[in-house]
Amino acid sequence: MILDQKSASVTASEDFDPVWYAITYPDVAQVGMDPSDHYEWIGKRLGRKPNGGKGFLSEQDEPQISAMLSTPPSDTVGPTEDDLKSMPNDPERWARNGVRIARQPSLPLKPLFQSFNPNAMNLHWIVSGELPLNARQAQVFALVRELEQLGHKQWVWIQPPCDQTGESAFKQALAAEGMSVPHTIVRRLPDHVLGISGDAVIATDWASCFPAAAMPLFKARFRLVQRLDEGRTSVTAATLAAYAETLDFMAFGLSPLLASSPTPAVDWMGSLPLFVDERIFYPATDRACHGRDKTLQIAVDLGSGATPDVATDLTFDVLNLLTERGVSFTAHLFGQPDIGELRLKAYRDHGPIGPSDRAELFRVCQVGLSLAAGLDCTTQSEMYACGLHSVGLPRNEICGAGGNSPPASGLSVAIAESICANLVEFQPLKQASQNGVVSARAAAQATEGILRTGLSAKSVPVTIASAMATSDYEHKAAVIIPTWNGGALFRDVLEAIATQRTPWSFDVLVIDSGSTDETVEIVRSYETRGVRLHTIPNSQFQHGRTRNLAISLTNAEFVAVLTQDATPANSSWLANLVKAFNAGDRVAGVFGGHEAYPEATPFVSSGIKGHFEHFDRLPHLAEWANDHGEPISFGSVAWQNWLHYYSDNNSCMRRSVWEKIPYPDIDWGEDQVWAWEVVKQGYQKAFANDAVVYHSHNLNAEQQRKVSAIEGDFWLRYFNYSFEGSDAEVNASLLYLQEQRQAFAAAHRVEPSVTDEQMLLDRESLFARYQGQVRLLHETYKTRDRLRTTQG
């Protein structure tokens, strides 16, 4: 299954803004529809806006919407609206400024794979959505940029509070600051995070620990400790921060001063050297030295709105003392919004400013005053890099060689006296390295080492070169087929395999799990033609585990995987699958096309045909770095669909890669989860459009319900795809599908009974898929059930 991106060619209003609509309503991308089509067919009926201004839901639309949402479906088969349990959505679930963040359960790590590529780690960062970017955010993005250039694959999740346009605004802010990360995916943190996966998730402060702790599919969790006393802005914040420190994370510090600090983290992995983004923070070339007859320009750090950890009262007392002592200065205040009127003689309030503006400010000042209590020295490092002499609290001092920085004592009098006593001696610093501040690249390399060490504690580092190394195999290829009551059709499947024409030998293994029909006898009748049989009890069957067992019983360079109802369309099928491995130098798996059986309904045949025509239009070699523009621009949901689609109805894998990255031990969907993992680890996936099998199903209502419920659970559990977010959206999607079906039927002269049956199946599918996701989330959060149990 893939979420087809093909547009229905519906023309939206001239006022429609597709970018705004897709960002504001993320379910549009998840269901794979063109934004304009979604608005025309579904969004209008839900009362959604077409753009950031006033929506154009007309009065005549309202009765139709009301009737659609209040009237149960007319037929009586399957669920009704009353049966739909509500999706446990909570827009405040991860809000950094609220207590609801602590309601979410911490889930133990249960990674599906035990290896990682040390040269291309898949890293997920969770960062504050605060804008403009503060000093700590800037340092995180400097690390992300340098790690990207070192070859690592990264996601940045923007944590609320931020509005629905936060993703776009964040990207624009990064671009404006010259801090864009073109090969890193930047997305707003979704409400549900259960299915987000990768090598490591990195929380960048106490608040981001909560969503990170709700992501169970990672191989390791890290916490970047940026300062001490996080969250000490209120009793509630302090309590939540203390609770976050009890969560099971490996930790590393942003400053070497944090290395010796007490930490409750289970594993302390070390600290980074002091660093800055040297592309932004560098000294001025023409700044004059300060003399007693000139006005001293002082850059004054007041902390950021989200992390006000600066001793502001002490800061203002120091400035007042300087005024009392007759020092001529202008205080350039930055960091806090709306500080109001002050008693200072000469000051300028710059408010919250981003990295570039901070750097420009620092380059026109001589002294920086940053009385931060967090030990991270983030802002001080930026000041030093721009040539300032920075004054901080005693434990924060990062004095360079020769004592360029005054020895502040922590008392306002001592700090003011140290500034007065050294006015004549202040000379612009030429290099940040005078104060032990290193480049962002050096800090990223240190981060890389820490993450590799932490991941290696429970996972095995596997390079692509080692996984692609070949051995001497008995056969060029093998074919494995799990069976259970395959029926008469399975004879056709084996016959098609036995008559394959290849220039090399191949092996065929059938692994049967307790068939009670003629399946085993059919297999044995092909033993003289090279087909082997291995049996297991039915209770031991599991999609991932059973296929791993079957592959282990073969000895071939490439292993093709079929299902018992997929019949190769011609005698070149296997040779064409293997040939597709030549499409790239890192191809780990290949999948082939499908055609429907003649007895398939027109709707099933059309769906399969369109599905694989979609892949035929796209590049046949898929890998992480590819960006081919619309409809698969880098980082989009369509791009992700393209990378992970892979079907064990018709696929082939490189055995040497499988030995390092076997199928996950899961009940369903092992093929797509495996493909997503190998692509994340840096391998390629190929499409063999000339290796076709016949495969299709005409499901009845009960079968459709079962399959769709499994699919709904699967897509959310392993890919974090959440489709319809409410019963209203389910009904809107159903209405859209019904209109599409009727249009198709009219164009292709489909019998009314066949159309009615398909529309019933669509209804069963949408409702069951929604319920599959709802059940999974209720099982995950369990809050209401626990409260009911306690009250009972």
Outline:
By secondary structure, the protein is α/β, with parallel strands linked by helices. It is elongated.
The structure class reads alpha/beta
Gross morphology is elongated
Beta-strand percentage range: 15-25%
Termini, distance in Å? 43 Å
Largest sheet: 9 strands, mixed
Number of helices: 26
Mean pLDDT reading: 83
Uncertain runs with pLDDT below 50, 5 residues or more?
1-14, 54-83, 396-410, 428-434, 783-792
Nearest-angstrom radius of gyration? Answer: 31 Å
The amount of helix comes to 25-40%
Strand count: 25
Short key terms for the protein model shown above:
792 residues, alpha/beta, nine-stranded mixed beta sheet, seven-stranded parallel beta sheet, 26 helices, 37% helix, disordered N terminus, disordered C terminus
Notes on the structure:
With 792 residues, the chain is an alpha/beta fold. The protein contains 26 helices and 25 strands. The strands form five sheets. Strands 17, 18, 19, 20, 21, 22, 23, 24 and 25 form a nine-stranded mixed beta sheet that branches. A seven-stranded parallel beta sheet has the order 4-3-2-5-6-7-8, sandwiched between helices. β10 (296-301), α9 (312-324) and β11 (329-334) form a beta-alpha-beta unit. α23 (701-719) crosses α25 (752-781). The longest helix has 30 residues, at 752-781. The protein starts with 17 loop residues before the first helix and ends with a helix. The model is unreliable at 1-14, 54-83, 396-410, 428-434 and 783-792 (pLDDT under 50).
